[in-house]
Amino acid sequence: MSDQSAFGGPTRTGWIEVIAGVMFSGKSEELIRRVRRSIIAKKKVQVFKSHLDDRYQGVLSIASHDGRTVEAAPVDSSLQIAQQINPLADVVAIDEAQFLDAGIVDLATSLANQGIRVIVAGTDTDFRGEPFGAMPQLMAVAEMVDKLHAICVICGGPASRNQRLLGGKPARYDSPTIMVGGRESYEARCRHCHQVPLRDEDQVPLL
Predict the structure, then answer these.
(1) What is the CATH number of the domain that holds 136?
(2) Cβ-Cβ contacts under 8 Å for 114 (sequence gap 6 or more)
(3) How many domains does the chain have?
């Protein structure tokens, strides 16, 4: 980076930004916005995404739910990202980080230490409402964290949970953690409207 950092420090100062939240909250749209602004600023930008996310525009681009796209290299692991990093990169953006291995935390930290702005987007909780992949650790080491919310399809409140649907009904707690899907498989819901059969059945009401 050839100019002052976002924090007013010396040149070539790197940091980590995390864009977290539920599906349909605008995470990819926000990542795309930041990437495009960096490109306009004539920064050298690299964009990566988990190969598991092939919704909308396929594996060679990041697409928001409203159709905006940016080209991205599909990867299976943090090692694949490390092997493709351009030493001259100013900005490295990674989407769907929850699908990547724990090494993504060390990689993001290393890149930031080298003076690179790292932008990471991902779903911080799985369909059970529990921490998802390395996202909690990324949020802990980041300088900036933005947690976005969607709108609960049931009550209209702020949605902070991903409701997985199988055959139109809430998925059971023992369903596989990873199941890629769109509006046919997931809904955004608030804490109170979120349902996880088996888990909810075992909960004891508070007196």
Answers:
(1) 3.40.50.300
(2) 14
(3) 1
